[in-house]
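tool_call predict_complex ligand=pyridoxal-5'-phosphate
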Amino acid sequence: MLAQRTSLFGLSGTAAARAAAKVAADAGKEIIDLTAGEIWSELAPTIREGAIDAINKGVNRYTDTVGMIELREALARKVSLDTGDTWTAEEVAVTSGAKQALFNAAMVLLNPGDEVIIPAPYWTTFPAQVLIAGGRPVFVDSRSNGYVARIEQIKGAVTERTRAIVVNTPSNPAGAVYDVQTLMAIAQLAINRSLWIIFDECYGDFVHGHHAHHPIVSVAPEVRARTLIVNTFSKSLALTGWRIGYLAGPKEVISAVKALQSHTSSNPNVIAQHAVLAHLQRGDGVYESKLRSRLANARRLGLNVLSSLTRIRVPQAQGGFYFYLDLSDLLRRKLEDGASTTADDIANTLLAEAGVAAVSGTAFGDPVGLRLSYGIPPDKLETGLSRLVELLNAWE
Ligand code: PLP
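tool_result ok
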C-alpha cells in the first residue's frame, strides 16, 4: 500500500523511547524521563521579545525561502566568528531545524548508491536521511577509541562510491569531542579524495572540562569548499520547538537547497526567524552562559551519582548533555550465562521496574550503549540516576 521507501526508515529510536515513557506516564506511573534531546529551560528574553514584537507588528507573510536576508546576514556574521573566515548571506540557508539542513544536504549531494561514511554510534537520523536520499550509509565503529572515529578507519571505509563523511562533534549520543589532529586528517582526506564533509556542530556550545569545540573550517580553512556546516538554535538556546537551524556552505549548494526547500517547506516559521534575529542582534550572552552553567552543574551532579556504578565505567561526557554508558561488561556476563540480552532489555527493565526512561544504544547502531540526557531539573536527574545505579549495580 505504501511506497517502498517507507521500508527504509521507522520512527526514530529516540522518538520511540520518548513515546514509551509517555505511555508509562499516561498509565499513571511516575516516570523520570532521561530520553530528551533537549534542555529544560525558560525562554531567552530576547527570543520572547523578538517574537512578541513581530506578532505586534502583524508579521504574517512568507519570507525568502531560505530565510530573511537580515537573518542570513546575521548568521553569516556568526559563522564568520565561529570559523575565523568571512562568510556571506548567499552561503547560508535558514532551515526548520538542523534536521532539515541535514536532509537538504543529503538530497542535493547524493546520487543513487553514493556512500556516506558515518561514525557509529551515530545520531539515528544520519543514516535514515542518507537512505531516503538514495545513498548508502557506511559505518565506522568508534567505540574502541573513546567514540571518536580513527582516521585509519575512515580511510579504510573510503571507496570509489564515497561521497561524504559525517562529522558530528560534540557527538550525539556519546558526547565525544573530536580533537584537532583528527579533524585536520579528515579534512585532508576529504580534499585528497574529493569528498564532502557534513559537519554537524549542533552541540558545539556545550563542551566540558578541558575539551574545546573546533569547527573543522577553523582548523583546516582549505576544506571550506568541501564542507557543509550544520547548526541549530534548538540546543544552544534551548529552542527545540521553534525549529530554526541553518546550513552554511558553498553558494552553489545553498542555491540548490533554496530550490529544494521552495518545493518542500518554503521558509521556516517567520515569527521564529524574527525571534532568533532579535537574539543575534541584541543578545548579550548572559542567557547562554546561564544555560551552560546549568548544564555544567547537572553534569557534575550526574557524574557524582554515576560514580557509584560498580560494574560500568563512568562516562566521559565531554560535550553535549548526554551520559553514554557502555554496558558491554554487564551484557557480556549475561551472555556467558547463555542468555542473550541487549541494551534494549536494560532500557525496558529500567522503565518497567525503576520508572526511568533512557534510550537504548540500538537506536544509535550500538546494542551495548545507553543514553541518558541530563538536560532535566536537578532533583529529577538525581532521583532518576540513583534509581538507575541501584538497578544496574544489582543487575543479574
Ligand atoms: N544533529 C544532531 C546531532 C542532533 O542530536 C539533533 C537533535 O537531536 C539535530 C541535529 C536536529 O536538531 P533540530 O532540532 O535543530 O532539528
